[in-house]
Amino acid sequence: MSSQTQILANIGSIGMNNASNAAVTVIIAQGVGLCIDNTIIEFANTQEAILYMITNKNYGKAGYYVAAALAFQNGYNLAPSASTLYPSYAVIDPTAQVVKQAAFEVITQGSNSLLFLKIAGQDPVTGLLQPLPSDQFAAFQAYMTNFLIPYIPVTFINNQPDQLSFNGIFTYYPTYDVNVASAAIMPQLTSFLTNFQFNGQFYCGDLESFVQFGNVPLGGSIPGIPGCRNFRLSNTSLNGVAFADDIVLPSGYFNYTSNIINNIQLVAASS
User: Fold this and answer.
1) Are the C-beta atoms of 102 and 119 separated by less than 8 Å?
2) Is the whole model's pTM more than 0.90, yes or no?
3) Taking a C-beta distance cutoff of 8 angstroms, is the pair 167, 261 a contact?
4) d(C-alpha 211, C-alpha 168), whole Å
5) Which value, to the nearest 10 degrees, does the dihedral of the CA atoms of residues 252, 68, 39, 37 take?
6) Cα separation, 70 vs 121, whole angstroms
7) End-to-end Cα distance, the chain
8) Do the beta carbons of residue 262 and residue 167 sit within 8 Å?
9) In the chain, what are the domain boundaries?
10) 8 Å CB contact between 248 and 201
11) Residues 109, 76: contact at Cβ < 8 Å?
């Protein structure tokens, strides 16, 4: 039964359905009933959209925010899905998905929890991560307002890569050509950089091991430098601040300081 019919029935039940006021009664029922019906429909649609986000999108969880960030298409507008009313793109264009890495992080300070979403784009020439340009970042922030939980703010981080510096000693076997070893070091460092897990913690031992062994011992397919006997780091710093062993990356990713290869000394093993 529509709200209009129900209103007319209720008016009739109290004896106000006589001929003299029938026309006025119908108009009132139509106006009020239409408003009520539209409100009920909107509530139902909103409930459906919320339930869809909770059950299918892990609403409010880390994966929810990361998935939304990676789905951002620069230059496209969102529209409610016809079936779920969830905001989505009518056309999926991978070339417009400029966010290449994203990570959600919760930092607890006393009784408060601070929420952060770190993102990074990609240099089309080098393939290395980089921040989104200001216009793309502004569009991204506007886009993400469609996915935020009311009254639960999230801080978006779109920073330049953290700058890693170190001194290194690359010890090679005497039978190995030192020129071949020297030429292999920088590509191996770059390979570690491009395979580093976004927002992962940097461990000096991971880079040392990668140069010597690659990631083959961990089930990967990137070999180490064949002539390397060992590789050791010292004087490590991030953004000019010294650290030892490991460190959290504020931006979520890093790059080496310029000419890092000049900080690496090649030493022939004694035997």
Assistant:
1) yes
2) no
3) no
4) 11
5) -170
6) 10
7) 93
8) no
9) 3-56, 62-157, 162-268
10) yes
11) no
